[in-house]
Design a protein that fits this description.
265 residues, mainly alpha, 0% strand
């Protein structure tokens, strides 16, 4: 039986923070909306100056922005929720309770989905109003694109959480920098083919590269690249398994050493 009550209890603890703090709510949507505004006008400028198809250029760039924000928001929603427990010195109390590690991870995933939706919905509406771009026009395959990027965000966040358990508060900066630092290698705004040949195998080891290659094919050619979808799913499975193993080892080590009570000090 799934212990929904314990998972909901941890979720409710975080949801109440947003219910009573409008700055937190604004922060959820701030960066996605800002990115959409900048890249929307930039894509229109490029299309007009280069004489390319405005709809395709805007679609490729704005689709890339929205989907990359899916990965970033899912990552930050997961990792930042965990950091709230670290900052409030509540991590030790959580694991004194009957809450099990996988139940905490389930609550973090659920909070990540909620935070991601709150961030992406305003940006999606803005794209439709200002640039007449509807991300839903990509078709049902959009669900697979987003799911793969969400999973990628989660395993990156889980790796960051594992390093925080191992290295303490000094590893918190990885939460804000690691996923964002992968953007140049995720083929968000340009195809893998323009990168140096020696770098391409490394880039293709990231699920995001396959997702964005598939997105460009869907928007510009109307073709669904199932080969890229299969690679993205397989890579996510492998990276997720590695992150779960890392988390479990670091969690057990932190519990034996008493580090759960003093992380961040």
């Amino acid at each position: 039986m799934i212990p929904l009550r314990r998972i909901w209890g941890l979720m409710y603890r975080h949801l109440t923070l947003y219910r009573r703090s409008w700055p937190r709510l604004v922060d959820l949507a701030y960066w996605p909306v800002l990115q959409m505004t900048i890249w929307g006008f930039t894509s229109r400028f490029f299309a007009m100056r280069l004489g390319t198809d405005v709809a395709v250029t805007v679609g490729v760039l704005l689709g890339g922005v929205l989907l990359w924000e899916t990965a970033l928001r899912s990552h930050l929603g997961f990792a930042a929720t965990f950091l709230e427990e670290v900052w409030s010195r509540n991590l030790g109390h959580i694991f004194i309770s009957p809450l099990r590690p996988w139940e905490m991870l389930a609550a973090l995933v659920a909070m990540s989905i909620i935070r991601m939706a709150c961030g992406l919905l305003p940006a999606t509406v803005l794209a439709a109003i200002l640039y007449h771009f509807n991300i839903l026009s990509v078709g049902p395959v959009l669900v697979l694109f987003m799911l793969n990027l969400m999973i990628m965000g989660w395993w990156i966040a889980l790796a960051c959480v594992s390093l925080i358990l191992s290295q303490g508060g000094g590893a918190e900066t990885l939460v804000w920098s690691l996923a964002a630092g992968l953007a140049p290698f995720a083929a968000v705004y340009y195809p893998v083919s323009i990168m140096p040949h020696w770098l391409q195998p490394i880039v293709l080891a990231l699920p995001a590269a396959h997702v964005f290659e598939g997105l460009r094919a869907a928007i510009s050619q109307g073709v669904i690249r199932w080969d890229h979808m299969a690679w993205a799913a397989a890579l996510n499975a492998a990276w997720t398994a590695a992150s779960v193993l890392l988390f479990w080892r670091q969690f057990q080590s932190a519990r034996r050493n008493g580090a759960l009570m003093n992380i961040g000090e």
